[in-house]
């Protein structure tokens, strides 16, 4: 259970850092377009945070992978939140994945509807589409984690 | 129809810990705990593996609750 909690929280941190990086990049690009200059200045802080976290997370996750027989190549193409050590965990993971899928069916239409009002607050929050997409991933990961914990401790 | 089982009783009789039994049948200790509590219904394969450890028929370890009434 500890593995699923740590990996789910790590994934959420990664999504937040990605959203921060892309929104920062969007802001930098917008500045270039508005000023009509060919000088590009990038804020490196979000990139450094993301890369730094990603390296630490990759090393930790690979060392603590539930199935120690997996090579790096096999491990790297799997979702690290999944823990399927035995048949019960496989069932719990399937249940949690289903719940996360259902959460997409609820959050995505709501966010699609919220885009209708985007022109009203576009200037105040230009990176809204990036954060909206990140929030769907964050919500589904939270749903996955809570469903997994509930089923595991049942 | 809930499944009831005698795993806890048989495990005690064979002087096995939950960890021992888990290792013998290739599952986690938490799965044995859930199984003994009755909150997890094992697959047929796991039930047969447990039956093999205790050297008893599956149906003498796992019973559908209404059958006992």
Automatic annotation (TrEMBL), chain A:
Superkingdom as given in the UniProt entry: Bacteria
Membrane-spanning parts: 12-33, 45-62, 99-121, 127-149
Keywords: Membrane, Transmembrane, Transmembrane helix
Name of the protein this chain belongs to: MFS transporter
Organism whose genome encodes this protein: Exiguobacterium mexicanum
UniProtKB/TrEMBL annotation, chain B:
Stored SUPFAM superfamilies: lambda repressor-like DNA-binding domains
Keyword DNA-binding set for record: yes
Molecular function terms from GO: DNA binding
Pfam families on file: HTH_3 (PF01381)
Keyword field: DNA-binding
Domain HTH cro/C1-type: residue ranges: 7-61
UniProt-listed Gene3D superfamilies: lambda repressor-like DNA-binding domains
Regions crossing the membrane: none
PANTHER family, per database record: DNA-BIDING PHAGE PROTEIN, TRACRIPTIONAL REGULATORY PROTEIN-RELATED-RELATED
Protein name per Swiss-Prot or TrEMBL: Cro regulatory protein
Annotated source species: Exiguobacterium chiriqhucha RW-2
């Amino acid at each position: 259970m500890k593995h699923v909690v740590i990996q789910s929280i790590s994934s959420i941190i990664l999504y937040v850092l990605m959203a921060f990086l892309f929104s920062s990049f969007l802001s930098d690009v917008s500045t270039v377009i508005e000023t009509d200059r060919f000088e590009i200045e990038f804020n490196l802080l979000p990139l450094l945070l993301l890369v730094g976290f990603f390296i630490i997370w990759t090393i930790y996750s690979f060392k603590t992978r539930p199935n120690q027989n997996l090579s790096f190549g096999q491990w790297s193409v799997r979702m690290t939140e999944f823990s399927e050590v035995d048949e019960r965990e496989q069932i719990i993971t399937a249940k949690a994945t289903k719940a996360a899928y259902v959460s997409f069916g609820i959050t995505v239409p709501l966010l699609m509807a919220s885009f209708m009002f985007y022109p009203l607050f576009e200037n105040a929050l230009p990176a809204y589409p990036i954060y909206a997409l990140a929030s769907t991933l964050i919500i589904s990961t939270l749903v996955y984690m809570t469903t997994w914990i509930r089923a595991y401790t049942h | 129809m809930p499944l009831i089982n005698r795993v806890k009783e048989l495990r005690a009789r064979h002087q096995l810990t939950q960890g021992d039994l888990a290792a013998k049948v290739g599952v986690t200790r938490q799965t044995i705990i859930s199984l003994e509590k009755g909150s997890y219904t094992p697959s047929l394969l796991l039930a047969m593996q447990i039956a093999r450890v205790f050297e008893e028929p599956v149906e003498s370890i796992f019973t559908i609750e209404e059958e006992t009434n």
